[in-house]
Amino acid sequence: MLSGFGLQLFLAGYLLVAVFIIVERMLRKTESAKTFQRGNFDRGSTLLIGTAFGVGLVLPLLTDGLDIGPFFSIDPAEGFLALAIMILGIGLRVWAARTLGRYYTRTLLTTEEQKVITTGPYARIRHPGYLGNILLWSGFGVLSANLAVALLFPVMFVAAYLYRISVEERMLAGTLGEDYAEYRRRTYRLVPLVY
Description:
Largest sheet: none
CATH topology: Four Helix Bundle (Hemerythrin (Met), subunit A)
Strand content: under 5%
Shape: elongated
Order of helices and strands: HHHHHHH
């Protein structure tokens, strides 16, 4: 079980997750941004991401409460680095959502007047908000001080978002046509210069 400084880091991680959830809610201003109604293109990706979020919230508490290890100790530098990664993830997610503006939605939807966004973080990568979420949850996994959780979270969230990206890109290619195809040719999916 976590105690002392490790527990403080763990609680700080949960506080940042709570901040993320509150900020996400505040960013969702339009009805399409708030709805859980999935369009024809979703293919279960919203449910998959929601499930990953649920596991992300519950698993660290469960493993700590039931003392299911293996646990490791986090020194202050590692803890602050994990918190910084979480904050970076939240910042990137907010930047991406604000850049999308009225096109920011929870599920995969497009509108008739939708256009390709190529400013802000979208100038280099096509899914910066998803990268922000992966960073947030990966940092939080480390703060659990549980080796299984710390290894599972990046794998789980990368897998969920890679599926979401494949589904979303098919939707955008089909609805936005050549403009999106051109945008895809000059940007990366998730990590600049890598993928």
